[in-house]
Q: What sequence folds into this?
């Protein structure tokens, strides 16, 4: 008889994320253990509690979710968790602080529905933020030529260097994307993805609407004014000025499905580590299954 599914939610914030807790319960978690204000020094004790209380054959029924608003802090927790495991005495772990991994995966998958990403030129605005960095990483792995946009060129260059450490073949072009340089940054672009802060317009409508090569525009900002002018948060493959457009809500449905599926996947074994690439792969599986279902229903 299998053990009940237990998920440890480790959150460096003052309060554990309610959003992540609800998704976990909806994904089939039977017992959710939430820990707030978690620091790196506290990780070994929490992990030992997870791996020493069940036999090796039952460890697949325990898993860890690392969340929080600060992605950097969550990355440190994830590293310490992996260092604490003892050979086969380990459990599966997922990191999705601030929704960075699931949101980035959903955005890149949406772009890939309409444009062959390999060889495509893609501009990522606010590419130095948590979501933007992961969008750049995933696009680079797909073989896209990625323009890494930031208001500060040195920050864009830093992101490019980090991505190249993970993706040696990455084709990246760091850019300073000030208002007066956006038209030049858009030249030859097939896809633009805006991953900026809430309520900040990064790309005015008159700039992208005059880009003859643009096929897909994706805005991940859910608070007006939108990151890409002329889009709506509810856009889901909406045609605007001949461009296929997605807003934050339009991306959100896929993001939620990916998040839920990834949490459920944690309990299929005890050795999985779900970060950006692994979560993206789960999203691609879901996309493939949905496409097959649509074709089968014709």
A:
């Amino acid at each position: 008889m299998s053990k009940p599914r237990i998920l440890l939610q480790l959150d460096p914030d003052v309060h554990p994320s309610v959003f992540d807790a609800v998704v976990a319960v909806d994904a089939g978690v039977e017992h959710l253990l939430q820990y707030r204000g978690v620091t790196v020094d506290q990780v070994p004790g929490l992990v030992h509690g997870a791996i020493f209380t069940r036999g090796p054959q039952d460890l697949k029924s325990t898993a860890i979710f690392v969340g929080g608003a600060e992605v950097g802090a969550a990355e440190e927790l994830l590293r310490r968790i992996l260092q604490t495991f003892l050979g086969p005495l380990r459990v599966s772990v997922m990191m999705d602080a601030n929704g960075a991994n699931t949101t980035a995966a959903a955005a890149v998958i949406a772009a890939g529905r309409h444009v062959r990403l390999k060889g495509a030129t893609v501009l990522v605005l606010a590419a130095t933020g948590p979501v933007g960095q992961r969008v750049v990483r995933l696009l680079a792995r797909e073989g896209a030529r990625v323009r890494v946009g930031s208001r500060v060129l040195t920050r864009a260059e830093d992101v490019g260097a980090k991505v190249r450490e993970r993706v040696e073949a990455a084709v990246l072009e760091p850019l300073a994307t000030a208002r007066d340089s956006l038209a030049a940054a858009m030249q030859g672009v097939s896809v633009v993805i805006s991953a900026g802060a809430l309520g900040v317009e990064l790309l005015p409508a008159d700039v992208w609407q005059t880009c003859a090569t643009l096929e897909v525009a994706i805005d991940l900002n859910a608070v007006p004014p939108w990151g890409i002018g002329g889009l709506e948060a509810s856009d889901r493959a909406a045609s605007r000025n001949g461009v296929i457009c997605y807003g934050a809500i339009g991306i959100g449905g896929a993001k939620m499905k990916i998040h839920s599926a990834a949490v459920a996947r944690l309990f299929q074994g005890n050795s999985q580590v779900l970060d950006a690439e692994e979560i993206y792969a789960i999203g691609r599986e879901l996309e493939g299954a949905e496409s097959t279902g649509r074709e089968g229903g014709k």
About this structure: The chain has two domains: 6-99+254-292, 103-251. The chain has ten helices and twelve strands.
